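Extended Data, panel c. Modelled sequence:
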Amino acid sequence: MSDASSVSEFVAQHPKMAGALFTMMLLLTQAGGVMAGNSNPIVGP
């Protein structure tokens, strides 16, 4: 539980980082879906 409290303390001390962390998490979740959707197998002749 110390990790969660340290993250909350960090965000409380640096409020602008909350938006940056949210944006990074949003981009990472979207990138995961894109990578999973692009797994088309190549069928050879």
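The radius of gyration is 18 Å. This feature is highlighted in the accompanying rendering.
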